[in-house]
Design goal:
Layout (H helix, E strand, L loop, with lengths): L4 H4 L5 H7 L2 H21 L8 H20 L2 H6 L1 H18 L1 E3 L2 E6 L4 E2 L1 H18 L13 H16 L3 H18 L3 H21 L2 H11 L10 H13 L10 H4 L11 H34 L3 H25 L17 H19 L14
Antiparallel strand pairs: 1-2, 2-3
Helix pairs in contact: 3-4, 3-14, 4-16, 6-7, 6-8, 7-8, 7-9, 7-15, 7-16, 8-9, 9-15, 12-14, 14-15, 14-16, 15-16
């Protein structure tokens, strides 16, 4: 007979886990996503098609994924961390072989019923694998060089594959996610200082290997006015839209920059700009406040976990989420170069939505099983 407890944990009943589930957190995610639905409805000039309805369906599926993932015992997730990483790495590698191009980059796999972006899945799988690895090390073992070879390869290999696609934004986020786990695990500061110096020294080599459009993005970031009708057009229009929103905005569906098609990619990368134009500074700050509450809850989950795996995983999810928000909002305001990072739960995108809800499911699993103690010894894969 099928035993649900085999997959949801032996120490807690399913009903107890549902009571432990933080439904207020899910309500908070729903509120943020609803803002996204409204903006996608506005982007389409008052129509649920083609973006808003699809995004609603994906969020509904994401909620189901989040609930299932949250019910699974955290020890199960620890055991399958390496296999999930292996699957994600194989999918990222498959992009280079059989992936198809879109918007000038080869980032997707066409599975028939869905177009999958494996790099989004890798963001979550990397957090799981690194948390699993460092859980097995004592604090004084983390900074030993021989113990850093494997986790460094875990980060470098997918980052290299993603850069090749090319997808610089996702590569940066993967690097940040990996660095977060290293930091939370207790890696000595000297390694971070050395890494920073190495990156600075490698800038000429990195610059030489960048694509022309990537160099143009840096030039445009430094001086958007140098090519106002070309490379600088997007960010200049974004700033105009944000500034024209004022304190309270022009009103829902009344944004001229967006609806007159001056604003590019307004359903994805620049959706925060559209929100700022229509709902103003107050609306933009309200959304950022909701994001801050999500971040605060996530960090609190990490602090409350009694096992190292849960602490590292929750911290990784929290910091990765923060940088998603920070990079996108700073990008559209001209504070960072445009790198193509979506706004969590708001920008249109299937794989990004589902992978983020999966990550929040893992976060909730850490919360539900926060008192579970896990030994540092080997636990196996299955």
């Amino acid at each position: 007979m099928f035993d649900l407890r085999r997959f949801t944990g032996r120490d807690m009943k399913l009903g107890d886990k549902l009571l432990e589930f933080n439904w207020g957190f899910l309500l908070l995610l729903t509120a943020i996503s609803s803002i996204g639905f409204a903006m996608l409805y506005s982007v389409a000039d008052g129509s649920f098609s083609p973006w808003a309805l699809r995004q609603m369906i994906r969020f509904g599926a994401g909620v189901g994924i989040m609930l299932v993932v949250a019910m699974v015992d955290i020890r199960i997730w620890m055991r399958v961390a390496y296999p999930l990483y292996g699957v994600a790495l194989a999918l990222v590698l498959a992009v280079d072989i059989v992936g198809f191009k879109g918007m000038g980059a080869q980032r997707w796999l066409n599975l028939g019923f869905i177009q999958l972006q494996p790099s989004e899945i890798m963001k979550v799988a990397l957090l799981l694998a690194l948390a699993r690895y460092f859980h097995g090390l004592a604090h004084d073992e983390v900074s030993r060089i021989r113990n850093l070879i494997v986790p460094l390869l875990m980060v470098v290999v997918p980052v290299g594959l993603v850069v090749k696609q090319p997808d610089l934004g996702t590569a940066i986020l993967l690097t940040i996610a990996g660095g977060t786990i290293f930091f939370a695990a207790g890696l000595a500061w000297r390694y971070f200082i050395f890494s920073g110096i190495a990156v600075l020294a490698a800038i000429p080599v990195i610059w030489d290997r960048l694509h022309d459009y990537q160099r143009n993005r840096v030039f445009t970031f430094l001086d958007p006015e140098r090519d106002p009708l070309g490379a600088g057009y997007h960010i200049l229009q974004s700033k105009i839209a944000l500034g024209s929103g004022g304190l309270f905005g022009k009103g829902f569906m009344q944004g001229t920059q967006a609806h007159l098609n001056f604003l590019p990619e307004k359903q994805t990368d620049f959706i925060f700009t559209m929100l700022g134009e229509e709902l103003g500074f107050v609306g933009a700050m309200a959304l950022l406040l909701l994001y801050a509450i999500v971040l605060g809850f996530s960090l609190n989950v990490a602090l409350q976990c009694r096992n190292q795996f849960g602490r590292l995983l929750a911290m990784g999810v929290a910091v990765s989420f923060f940088f998603y928000v920070f990079i996108n909002t700073a990008m559209v305001m001209g504070l960072l170069p445009v790198v193509g990072v979506p706004l969590p739960l708001v920008s249109y995108g299937g794989t990004a939505m589902l992978s983020l809800m999966f990550a929040f499911g893992l976060l909730m699993s850490c919360h539900i099983h926060r008192n579970v103690e896990i030994s540092r010894g080997p636990t196996g894969f299955f």
